[in-house]
Design a protein that fits this description.
The protein has 284 residues and is an alpha/beta fold. The protein has helices at 11-14, 38-64, 83-89, 109-112, 118-121, 139-146, 152-171, 185-197, 207-213, 216-230, 245-261, 274-283; strands at residues 70-77, 99-103, 130-134, 174-182, 237-241. The protein is globular and about 70 Å long.
Length: 284
């Protein structure tokens, strides 16, 4: 069997948001750092599943024995960009008992009565866990800026609160991977039409998606500001071109592999006499 085509350049480097970044400079159709084609990408995704699952199991095991290490994947995107596909095809390779998924919808009345981070903080991953935010606290600076639901002073307060929150998570042992799946407006139109043309996908369609689509340019500007304000050393943003679903999946998979690999994980050492316990089991 031929070896899988791997990334030539790390997504953690080529997709990281840096000074002066602008979404206008990113081609959503591109595949930065990856020299292979669609078939190669699909093969790589499958080939890396076991490695990702193994690292996650080590993280979970360490957490059971006192380690504070944990990981949080934050997924942000316009509608239809493929967040669900990342959860299914990338995160889905992991053991569900070690994953905590939080999908943030419009806040409830109770949640609105608290600060915007109140509901977010409750979903932060515990030690040993991989947390996944399907949308996140960033909705509270994106949609609120686009629709002017918050004024400039409040938005600045929220950017600062987000940076403080993520810094506290990092201090507690959380490795944060922030991803924006970047699709083009034309690609979103095709995906919305595809949903309408397939009865099995009608449940995914919402007229609200069309309403927000009208604010596309405003959202792109709001994302650029959010990147500028909140891409920090402990929690940098990564913008993943997502017109090609297969590329987005392998890019996020590699970001997770790099993040978990950087934690120097290992299996907890037995605190008992293995040989003696083996003898007892054999004699039972």
């Amino acid at each position: 069997m031929a070896a899988a085509v791997e990334f030539a350049k790390s997504p953690a480097e080529v997709l990281k948001v840096g000074p002066g970044f602008s979404l206008a400079g990113v081609d959503p159709q591109s595949t930065p750092g990856y020299p292979g084609a669609k078939a190669d990408g699909k093969a790589l995704l499958a080939a890396q599943d076991d490695r990702l699952a193994g690292l996650q199991e080590q993280l979970f095991a360490e957490g059971k024995f006192g380690s504070s290490k944990r990981l949080l994947l934050i997924l942000q995107a316009m509608d239809t960009a493929g967040k669900g596909g990342i959860v299914s095809h990338v995160v889905g390779a992991m053991d569900p008992q070690g994953v905590h998924l939080a999908a943030f919808k419009a806040p409830t009345e109770e949640e609105k009565s608290h600060d915007f981070l109140w509901r977010i903080e409750k979903q932060a991953p515990a030690a040993g866990m991989v947390g996944v935010f399907d949308r996140s606290h960033y909705e509270d600076v994106l949609i609120h800026r686009v629709h002017a639901w918050a004024d400039g002073e409040e938005l600045e307060r929220r950017y600062a609160a987000i940076n403080d929150f993520e810094a506290r998570l990092a201090e507690q042992g959380t490795t944060i991977v922030k991803v924006m799946l970047n699709i083009s407006k034309d690609e979103q139109k095709e995906r919305l039409i595809a949903r309408l043309d397939d009865p099995a996908k009608h449940w995914k369609y919402s007229r609200g998606d069309l309403a927000e689509r009208a604010y596309w340019d405003d959202y792109m500007a709001a994302y650029d500001i959010a990147f500028e304000k909140t891409s920090t050393e402990v929690a940098p943003w990564h913008v993943v071109p997502a017109n090609k679903k297969w590329y987005a999946r392998i890019a996020v998979q590699q970001l997770l592999l790099d993040a978990l690999g950087g934690l120097e994980l290992d299996w907890p050492k037995a605190d008992f006499d293995v040989a003696a316990e083996r003898a007892l089991v054999a004699a039972s």
